[in-house]
UniProtKB/TrEMBL annotation:
Provenance organism: Rubricella aquisinus
Keyword Iron attributed: yes
UniProt keywords, alphabetically: Cytoplasm, DNA-binding, Iron, Metal-binding, Repressor, Transcription, Transcription regulation, Zinc
Stated name of the protein: Ferric uptake regulation protein
One MF term in the entry's GO annotations: DNA-binding transcription factor activity
Lineage summary: Bacteria, Pseudomonadati, Pseudomonadota, Alphaproteobacteria, Rhodobacterales
Superkingdom of origin organism: Bacteria
Length: 139
């Protein structure tokens, strides 16, 4: 894969959400979608990836940029343990495996989860989304 393919993918991804391709957004977009694969990252793991790629981006900027990507609908946020946020470049509804041992979040097969029934939403609100996180530990 050439560098220009990576950059082109990143630019198209940002353009699809009408986000201006600033240097930092482009850096992070290249790491997130440059290879055409979906991934699940935390601000910390993406920040480490920028350092590994010799990009100089602060953790705060990584965090704020992920928020902006999330607001623009480019990534989905999945919260585990109420505090840990993962950002997923795959934005359709799908279940996740959370690997307790090393804190990884990966996709679970979509056809593996079926809801017979959901609780009725309280009056005046509707269910906007159901997040499914299946926790895994060594058996
Ligand atoms: Zn996912």
């Amino acid at each position: 894969m050439t560098d220009s393919t990576v950059t082109r993918r990143a630019r198209q991804w940002l353009a699809g959400a009408n986000l201006r391709p600033t240097r930092q957004r482009l850096c992070l977009a290249e790491l997130l979608v440059g290879d055409g694969q979906n991934r699940h990252v935390t601000a910390e793991s993406l920040h480490r990836a920028t350092a590994d790629a010799d990009m100089s981006v602060s953790l705060a900027t990584v965090y704020n940029t992920l928020r902006a990507f999330c607001d623009a609908g480019l990534v989905n946020e999945i919260t585990v343990d109420g505090t840990r946020s993962y950002f997923d470049t795959r934005t359709d509804d799908h279940p996740h495996f959370f690997w307790e041992e090393d804190g990884r979040l990966t996709d679970a097969p979509t056809d593996s989860v079926a809801f017979e029934r959901l609780p009725a939403a309280p009056e005046g609100v509707e269910i906007s989304k159901v997040d499914v996180v299946i926790r895994l530990r060594k058996s």
